[in-house]
Design a protein that fits this description.
7 helices, alpha/beta
């Protein structure tokens, strides 16, 4: 894992989140891109210099955040981008060859009942970028146990497991696989190929209405430091994020959640 990107918003958790991202990047010897994306909605012919002002203020805001963080041993690069959030972020990640995005659940939302805010929800729902969602106030620690929960273990994308594999190998972590048989189960869904099988220590098969319910049922017995799920068109989180937000009453996690790009 050579480069990691962390979008910075205006939440009260931004400083704590940035420190986690720096500490995580340090463990991998990765470069950390700290970015903010802004957009301008204005009528033609008005506020001619607003782009320059916003860029300058955004850059100063990011540098101010970074100055409060212990960045020793980590190459931190501050960047600002103008454009629509999802499209611009995807282009930035491609240009910077980013391996992972580290997100805080709520970059801007001030609603206490919200687990994942609109901005982070858009990134997770509308992109195929691997993302690590870190709980508010969570302090970095090495990952000892990982729980991967899926309703189908079918993998067709060669690099789909790369973020998981790199994290597991870096920490020499135990990876437990939870296969959840849902009403939409298809024959062959639980056929685990060699690529995944070589990473897994223990496998549990559960039967639940959703993958999410399977995680709730088997979470405590696995006691993971990292929960790993897969982004699918109608998968673990997507149904819950129709409006790009998710409430704490619907999902809340006290540990980081790694969201892989679709395996198929």
């Amino acid at each position: 894992m050579k480069s990691i990107l962390v979008p910075v918003g205006s939440s009260k958790n931004a400083e704590s989140h940035l420190q986690y991202a720096v500490d995580f990047a340090r463990a991998f010897g990765a470069k950390l891109y700290v970015v903010q994306i802004y957009n301008v909605y204005t009528k033609a012919g008005t506020m001619i210099k607003v782009d320059h002002i916003l860029q300058r203020e955004s850059l100063a805001f990011l540098k101010g955040h970074v100055s409060k963080i212990d960045t020793k041993g980590v190459q931190v690069v501050v960047k600002t981008f103008k454009g629509k959030l999802v499209d611009t972020l995807e282009l930035a990640c491609e240009a910077l060859d980013v391996d992972l995005i580290i997100l805080e659940p709520r970059t801007n939302s001030i609603k206490d009942e919200v687990y994942l805010g609109k901005t982070s929800g858009k990134i997770v729902k509308q992109t195929d970028l691997p993302a690590l969602i870190v709980p508010e106030g969570y302090v970095y620690k090495p990952i000892v146990k990982i729980l991967l929960a899926v309703k189908s273990a079918v993998i067709k994308k060669d690099d789909a497991l790369n973020p998981l594999r790199v994290i597991k190998n870096q920490y020499k972590a135990v990876l437990n696989l939870l296969l959840v048989r849902t009403p939409f189960h298809n024959e062959g869904d639980f056929d685990v190929n060699d690529d995944l099988s070589n990473l897994v220590t223990n496998t549990t098969i559960a039967e639940n209405a959703t993958t999410y319910q399977g995680v709730l049922e088997h979470y405590k017995e696995n006691n993971p430091d990292l929960l790993c799920v897969v982004r699918r068109k109608r998968g673990f989180f997507i149904k819950k994020w129709e409006n790009n937000t998710i409430l704490k009453k619907d999902f809340s996690s006290a540990l980081p959640v790694l969201v892989l790009g679709g395996l198929k």
